[in-house]
């Protein structure tokens, strides 16, 4: 019985340790415009909020429009918390669905990436 308790305890410690490592990556928590949202007008910037601080030099986004053409963006910057990546949109977006592809390098060296979409209402 004691061996079973010890094994269960070790398994629990291992599981918690692995979960902590998995959470150490910068994951997208929210975005403005939000994923699958519809906005009434062209956004002037995109704000992506992550679970931890980012390395700006190796983090960024690419936006493509309904015609699959790249959207012209300004220089990305980190807001004071280092967890919000703000990217100016340099052109007016027409009606349609846009795809945001992001990549991030957290300050502790972990890379993540993903994508989401939003729609500009006609």
UniProtKB/TrEMBL annotation:
Residues 25-120 form the CopC domain. Coiled coil: none annotated. Its main location: periplasm. Gene3D superfamilies: 2.60.40.1220. InterPro entries: CopC-like, CopC/D, CopC_dom, Cu-Rt/internalin_Ig-like, Ig_E-set. It is found in: Periplasm. Residues 1-24 form the signal peptide. Keywords: Copper, Metal-binding, Periplasm, Signal. It comes from the Bacteria. Belongs to the CopC family. NCBIfam families: copper_CopC (NF033814). This is Copper homeostasis periplasmic binding protein CopC. It comes from Rhizobium mayense.
């Amino acid at each position: 019985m004691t061996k079973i308790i010890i094994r269960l305890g070790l398994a629990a410690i291992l599981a918690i340790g692995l979960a902590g490592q998995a959470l150490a990556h910068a994951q997208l928590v929210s975005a403005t415009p939000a994923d699958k949202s519809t906005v009434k007008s062209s956004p002037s910037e995109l704000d992506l909020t992550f679970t931890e601080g980012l390395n700006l030099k190796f983090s960024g986004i690419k936006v493509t429009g309904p015609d699959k053409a790249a959207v012209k963006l300004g220089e990305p910057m980190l807001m004071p918390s280092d967890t919000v990546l703000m990217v100016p949109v340099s052109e007016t977006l027409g009606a349609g669905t846009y795809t945001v592809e992001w990549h991030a390098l957290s300050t502790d060296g972990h890379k993540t990436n993903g994508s989401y979409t939003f729609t500009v209402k006609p």
